[in-house]
Amino acid sequence: MNDIRLTPTREDKFAFGLWTIGHIGRDPFGDPTREPISPSDFVNGLDEVGAWGVSFHDDDLLPPGTSASERENIKKSFRKALDDTGIVVSMATTNLFTMPCFKDGAFTSNDPQVRKFAIQKVMNSIDVGAEFGAPTIVFWGGREGVEAAGSKYPLDALERYREAMNFLVGYVKDQGYRMKFAMEPKPNEPRGDTFLPTIGHTMAFIETLDDPSMVGLNPEVAHETMAGLSFYQGVAQAIWQKKLFHIDLNDQKIGRYDQDLRFGSEGIKDDFFLVRLLERTGYSGPKHFDSRPYRSEHGEGVWEFARNSMRNYLAFAAKAKAYDNDPKVKEAESLAGVDALANETIGKYSKALAEKLKAENFDYEQLAKRNYFNERLDQLAIDHIFGL
């Protein structure tokens, strides 16, 4: 481990949201266990641990009900902290889930006045994000769903969802803001069933928008894991379709509520291959940690959580590089035919190629005898993760 870089630099583009390390430890069964951190103090703390960026919900930075003068003072203090430290705003998002008026949804509420208010709230949030240079606006539809299946006709709900996204894309273009949108899927919680629950659902939805090029994904480790899916595979498809605009790193036990655990603390093999994928494909966006310290932590403990989140990513990156450079891995990949998958199977359709293929003879019994040596490859990954 001595030759592995575990100290972050700004070039790593590690970022944290105000609601992450700044979470006050409240949960559905318990009151807060630590004091809040002001936005400016949060930025200074990020600077001390070597992070690059900060993100915020509109309500994190500017709590509802604050006066115009209070809002200006908060923004002035936040701006000063950013300027003093060099921390950048990596992303902004809108809280469409805390206010009681969103209990039936925001963009998909049955009440048209609530839907209008939700769109207005996002426009105001976009303005604040633009003011601080946020290149991405994230949309998490935590309340866009149902408990009672008969309470919403899904086709109408999806139409209202699309209407809202199209309108907001139009707003950004009209204002001349240099930003794009990233949608964040989640299968459930707080709603019993959420619209656009997975990466696949959301990518299909995006292609129906007026300008799909403006909208991509912000997938989260915990959310795909809640659905029992491989986050690594989901992110790979998002990259393949050029839709990975932003990413949320944390960890999660399968089949549990959304836990927002420290990245690298649970799904270690999937995390290893995820980091390998991001490094191998040259992902250049923020590596954003959407996770929360344990309720038992306070003070220095919450910043230790931030350091360890970044440390784990860097450790996985180093392990992945060693794995890719290992002659035993290269040999096993050759035996498995890993590189052969990158070669065309037959190419673009033509009548001549189709006829030629139909005339070929395949010895399928002989093909069945091939050994792909996947066991060897899998154990080699484990060996590198464990440092064996």
H/I helix tally: 14
By CATH, the architecture of the largest domain is named Alpha-Beta Barrel
* Share of helical residues: 40-55%
Query: Which superfamily, in CATH terms, is the homologous superfamily of the largest domain?
Result: Divalent-metal-dependent TIM barrel enzymes
User: What is the CA-CA span between the terminal residues?
Assistant: 12 Å
Chain-averaged pLDDT: 97
CATH topology (fold) name of the largest domain? TIM Barrel
The beta-strand count equals: 10
Main beta sheet:
8 strands, parallel
- Order the strands across the largest sheet as they lie in space: 8-6-4-3-2-1-10-9
Count of all domains: 2
- Contiguous uncertain segments of 5+ residues: none
Shape: globular
SSE sequence, one letter per element: EHEHHEHEEHEEHEHHEHEHHHHH
Structural class: alpha/beta
Describe the 3D structure.
The chain has helices at 39-49, 58-61, 68-85, 112-131, 154-175, 199-206, 221-226, 231-240, 268-280, 300-325, 327-336, 351-359, 364-367, 374-386; strands at residues 14-17, 53-57, 88-93, 136-140, 145-146, 180-184, 193-194, 215-217, 247-249, 287-289. The protein has two domains: 10-325, Divalent-metal-dependent TIM barrel enzymes (TIM Barrel), CATH 3.20.20; 327-386, no CATH class. 45% of the residues lie in helices and 10% in strands. 38% of the residues are buried. The protein contains 14 helices and ten strands. It has 388 residues and is of the alpha/beta class.
